Amino acid sequence: MRQLFALSLLTGIAFSSAPIMVLAQTTDIQANTPSSAYLQDSRGPVARSQFGLCWRSGYWDKDSAVTGCDGELLPPFMKAIAPDLVSNPLAANTDNTAVTANSCNFLTTLSSDQTFSFGKNTLTAAAKAHIDNDIVAPLNGCNKDNVITITGHTDQLGANGYNQKLSEQRAQSVANYLKSKGVVARMNINGVGSTQEVKTCSNQLPHKSLISCFSPNRRVTISVQ
Question: Does domain 41-60+101-225 fall into CATH 3.30.1330.60?
Answer without folding.
Answer: yes
